[in-house]
Amino acid sequence: xxDEELLALFANPETRRNAFNLMVRKYQQKVYWLVRKMxxxxxxxxxxTQDVFIKAWTALENFRGDSKLYTWLYRIASNEAINFLNxxxxxxxxxxxxxxxxLSEKLEADPQLSGDxxxxxxxxxxxxxxxxxxxxxxxxxFEELPYEEISEITxxxxxxxxxSYHWASKKIExxxxxxx
Length: 180
What we know:
Layout: H1 3-11, H2 16-39, H3 42-59, H4 69-91, H5 96-109, H6 117-127, H7 131-142, H8 147-154, H9 158-178
């Protein structure tokens, strides 16, 4: 079902719940994996994904259609993931590198994320990036989104995104070369 059809169903009070359920089924896995790449832990990713769809439910009737529906959901998801990480850091009064170490340990212990050695090294390198750079890298590299869509999701200019992706790639490359 297209986004336009989903939104038309959502506009009708009688089919609103069904439309939302269809939207969740259509986008839940994509949103989950975007969040998962940011927060690493499965349970945390589930919680954040649920929060994303709760926010979407409360805001969907005000969705103007200026962007694609998944772009709008990705924006909510990326903000929720970053907010989750910031809350976690504040809650436990830990510096950023401690959160990185915790996420790195979870990455190593997670059977769903345990790929080959190269994949694990790449994921650890990505964890070293600041959250915004990590988000940009994940959206460009893994989701293969064009810069224009990433710009809509993050509210950042295309030029700044290109620079951010370049620096993220450079940091990852440096990390991978230093751990040989």
